[in-house]
Amino acid sequence: MEEDKEDIFRKLIQKSELDITGSGFTDNVMKMVQAEEIVQESALRALLVKNNLDQPSKSFESGIMAQITPITKKVEKPIISKNAWYVAAAFLALMIQYSFFSKASQTTAMDLSLIKITNAMFDFSNNAGQMPVIYFIVIVTLCILLLADYFILQRLGKRASH
């Protein structure tokens, strides 16, 4: 029975033809739409003229600005304090002093000639071998960390806040 209904429906669809519209159908529909738009637009204008837009009071902006609290700028502290830099500089000065005065037999008469200063700098490298290795490991590690901190700050422009 269902198949009969489907067959009948298919035959009706095949026999049906498209509706033929008049030549001015599209123009008539567009004119009606435009007429509705004109009526709606004039009603909207009349409504806007009748009801003025709300204007904020003159103190509105200053009231809002007064409610806004300024953000306090976070003062960034350096990772390595000034005292740590002073300690590092003092340690470096002590190492250089140690290299100059450790071999007193070579530098008994301290003239400021360029040759003796050059020899003293070479003595620093020779005397550095007499120091415990852990001192140099610590110094090199500190230097690498300080340089990394400096270059990371230069690249990022500011410290990451936690």
Write the layout of secondary structure elements.
Layout: H1 2-15, H2 25-50, H3 60-67, H4 82-101, H5 114-128, H6 133-156
Helix pairs in contact: 4-5
Task: Jot down its keywords.
single chain, about 160 residues
Summarize the structure.
By secondary structure, this protein is an all-alpha fold. It is 66% helix and 0% strand.
Give an account of the 3D structure.
With 162 residues, the chain is mostly helical. Helix content is 66%, strand content 0%. It is elongated and about 115 Å long.
Helix content: 55-70%
Distance between the termini: 77 Å
Uncertain residue segments: 105-111
Question: Shape from CA axes?
Answer: elongated
Per DSSP, what share of the residues sits in E-state strands of 2 or more residues? under 5%
Number of helices: 6
Evaluate the radius of gyration: 46 Å
Q: The biggest beta sheet, please?
A: none
Derived from helix and strand composition plus strand pairing, the structural class reads mainly alpha
Q: Which sequence of SSEs, written as H and E, runs from N to C?
A: HHHHHH
Number of strands: 0
Estimate the mean pLDDT confidence: 77
